[in-house]
Design goal:
Elements: E1 2-3, H1 7-16, E2 19-20, E3 24-34, H2 39-55, H3 58-62, H4 72-88, E4 102-104, H5 108-118, H6 120-128, H7 137-149, E5 155-159, E6 173-183, E7 188-198, H8 199-234
Antiparallel strand pairs: 1-3, 2-3, 3-7, 4-5, 5-6, 6-7
Helix pairs in contact: 2-4
Amino acid sequence: MKYLDIPPLQRLNAFLKSVDVGEYVLMGDLEAYSCKLAGLDKKLSKSLDAEVQTGSSPLELSASPVGPLAESSSRKTLIYLILTMNHIYPDHDFSLLRAHHFQKEETVSKAEEAIDSHLLEVSKVWAKTPGLGESPFLECLWSSVDEAIFLKECDVYSYKSDLETDPFGDEASIWSFHYFFYNKKMKRILYFGCRAVSKQAADEATDTSSKYDRYNQDDTDDDSDRYGMATEMDV
């Protein structure tokens, strides 16, 4: 799958990476991908397709949240959902996910309503942020998403975290949501996931990250001094 560089989404994604809403910090990901497979994705797709066919129950083969798994189109949908998760969270392997880990939403509007209800406090922060609040957050969000994926043509799926084998179930998490907007005609999928994390845990994570960055920076500087002469000689 190929990450799609869409400026309006990048702007929103940068804002959503860490939003302090007072009681908690919201951490979000908003990214779109092409469903054209190549390289490792293509190889994994073939192995997943075989595993899904042989490992699914008769009931799943006839009906599942992504459609009858006896049909190749339904298996492709499941594989795209799995691969998208792998791309967005590369430190975790979602290859063991199956159709029952997902749910097909009744309508796009139902998904929009659920997302909007979680992001009311985020909208207030957006409005107060210089350079961002010229238009309402939710208006910017959905116009950008529609531009990227054309919502009227989408099927919407959600991932239900099992809180154990994914990155969303640590003790610091208060709530989370994970939606996939899949446009078969465009061969695109857009993922929008957010989780609320306690402020204390978020601060600790930031401190740890800062220390790690300083440690790496020191190592990099040392390595540059130590190996600078060799590099020059190589050149």
